[in-house]
Amino acid sequence: MSTAEPTRSRAATEETSGARRDRERPPAPEPLPHPVVDNHCHLDIADGDWLATEAAIADAAAVGVPRIVQIGCDMPGARWAVAAAAEHDALVAGVALHPNEAPRLAATGDLDSAIEEIERLATTHDKVRAIGETGLDRFRHAQSGSGDEGWAAQEESFRRHIDLAKRLDKTLVIHDRDAHDDVLRILDEEGAPERWVMHCFSGDDAFARRCLDRGAYLSFAGTVTFKNAAPLRNALAVTPRDRVLVETDAPYLTPTPYRGRPNASYLVPVTMRAMAEVLQADLEDLCRAVDATTETAFGGSW
């Protein structure tokens, strides 16, 4: 067991509590012909729940995914990400407050202190490569009933994370759920950092072009394999190879044909093969391009 013992957040528990229909572990796919990075994973949520951290890292490496960006979404998750990255050579960390955390923290008067701690974590640990995931989420906002104050807290938090990424020269990792126009509006108003990633890209080809015109990297998850995801595949098709990333968002968004089961980094090859098919690309060539692009997007190798 990792000494960086995970502390499950309320948000993480809410996300996973209703998704336990099928716990059977998908089989390991055929290894990739060239390694790639899973640039967005939540090992703290999977650890102790389905697949332990050490096993997740080893299983991923065995199929050509030797490096992972561990993303923290709240204060327990951010602290865990930093500790895990310090312990495991295969990991680097992203730290931030998820947009759904911002209204909760604002309501208790803790948003300022939480953002201050995110900055401290990002400045005192050299394996923190990213500020994220931050951003905007209209889907959960509508469900929360937090009204204008809750949305204002999301926007304030997002703006402050953008500022952190720019001041600290970190990659900004953006969560965008049903908030395409608002995300780009705030980026335009604040000025985007040099490197920024649209995590689990969820738009169509027109929105992809709007993001790419502003310098974004687009990260594609298992959703690109879903039957109803033709607009997402169209977005992938118009994205230049030097702007394409791959991720799991594990334990969420498991690719077809294993949709509904918990995800893990060792399933990246399933998504990569689907992406190569969409792009009519040689798999090894695409893997090499994604690997090189990930290093650029996250400030170098590790």
Automatic annotation (TrEMBL):
Binding residues annotated for a divalent metal cation 1, in chain numbering: 40, 42, 133, 249
Transmembrane annotation, as ranges: none
GO cellular component term of the entry, any: cytosol
One Pfam family hit: TatD_DNase
Keyword GTP-binding: no
Gene3D superfamilies: Metal-dependent hydrolases
Region (Disordered): 1-36
Keyword terms of this UniProt record: Hydrolase, Metal-binding
Positions with biased composition (Basic and acidic residues): 7-27
Sites where the protein binds a divalent metal cation 2: 175, 199
GO MF annotation terms: DNA nuclease activity; hydrolase activity, acting on ester bonds; metal ion binding
Keyword Metal-binding: yes
Matching InterPro entries: Metal_Hydrolase, TatD-like, TatD/YcfH-like
Protein name per UniProt: TatD DNase family protein
Species this protein is from: Nocardioides alpinus
Lineage: Bacteria, Bacillati, Actinomycetota, Actinomycetes, Propionibacteriales
